[in-house]
Design a protein that fits this description.
alpha+beta, GMP Synthetase, Chain A, domain 3, four-stranded mixed beta sheet, 7 helices, 12 strands, Germination protein M, GerMN
Length: 323
């Protein structure tokens, strides 16, 4: 991934007497786009990320134009109170807005929001907000924001559940009806509420969104699948079917022949030769590796055709990576 750098012209508004809102709205985004689009690739290649020893990695959850929560690995300064810093990175302020507009995402929390954090026993993080946590326009927006908070905080190994408070008081629900009376855990991200016959389980699948060919990000969704479809070979078939359902491009001439597993390796055999270097194949296999890693202990995917292995893919540590 090539890093996106905010051009120097994007910062000039702060020195002209304009307030923050005016500075944001006066940015020439078309010119900024021209400055980086020729070298921009995808939000997915950690090998191209320049790791800064003075910083630590964090995974943040933002929202895209369709309302999906998108996980993004970013680097933030090492400091005490790191949990507070990651929540601040979710706030809809000018700085966050400018950075995220470059990749088509938006912060999820009101700019006026105030909060305090405290890590308790049993890996419980308590986060108390002021009344502005009740300022969302509808339940969808409110639920998305709460999920972003829970998912972002539970990326820390020391946190596995989050208690949301309002003015240091436990409330059963927020203004738009989101239930917060009990500690919240990860689950049902971008739920599709897909109806299936018989018993089912919830599974995380991935697809990608490519906007104007300038940036690509990978989206986790929760889908109900038949209970007998949780084996790796069935997950592969579910992933292929999901791409077709969502009209997400599949590599040209891709046709599955069979799936076999040996230890921690899954071999996906296809019937026809395909261009493994094509964008469609790279993105398809990135999505496949993310899905398989969410649903199994597989460590390697081998793509084969005929009697030959044509490509191999390790499991992806992060769905999306941004400077």
């Amino acid at each position: 991934m090539v890093m996106l750098i905010i051009c120097s012209g994007c910062r000039k508004g702060a020195d002209t007497g304009l307030n923050d809102k005016q500075a944001v709205e006066n940015i020439d985004y078309k010119q900024a786009n021209k400055d980086y689009v020729s070298t921009f690739k995808e939000l997915n290649d950690i090998r191209l990320l320049e790791l800064d020893e003075s910083k630590t990695r964090g995974v943040f959850y933002y929202v895209d134009p369709q309302g999906y929560l998108i996980p993004v690995m970013r680097q933030i300064p090492k400091q005490e109170g790191i949990a507070k810093s990651v929540i601040k990175a979710l706030v809809d302020n000018p700085e966050n807005r400018i950075e995220l507009r470059e990749i088509g995402l938006s912060p999820v929390l009101p700019e006026s929001l105030e909060f305090d954090l405290a890590l308790k026993e049993d890996n419980l993080m308590r986060i108390s907000f002021n009344d502005d946590i009740n300022s969302f326009k509808d339940k969808k927006e409110e639920e998305t924001a709460i999920k972003a908070i829970v998912y972002t905080l539970t990326e820390f190994e020391t946190v596995n559940k989050v208690q949301v408070l309002v003015n240091n008081q436990i409330v059963e629900e927020l203004a738009q009806g989101t239930r917060v009376g009990e500690p919240l855990t990860r689950g049902n991200i971008n739920s599709l509420d897909h109806v299936v016959q018989g018993e089912y389980v919830k599974s995380t699948l991935y697809f990608y969104n490519n906007v104007s060919n300038n940036y690509t990000y990978y989206i986790p969704v929760t889908k109900n699948i038949p209970k007998d479809s949780t084996s790796v070979d069935k997950i592969v078939q579910e992933q292929i079917g999901f791409f077709k359902e969502t009209n997400t491009p599949i590599p040209e001439d891709f046709e599955l022949e069979k799936v076999s597993i040996e230890g921690n390796v899954v071999k996906i055999k296809i019937k026809n030769p395909i261009d493994t270097d094509s964008q469609a194949c790279v993105r398809f296999m990135k999505s496949m590796s993310l899905t398989i890693s969410q649903n199994s202990d597989i460590e390697l995917i081998i793509l084969s055709q005929g009697n030959h292995d044509v490509a191999s893919y390790t499991m992806e540590a992060f769905a999306n990576i941004y400077k």
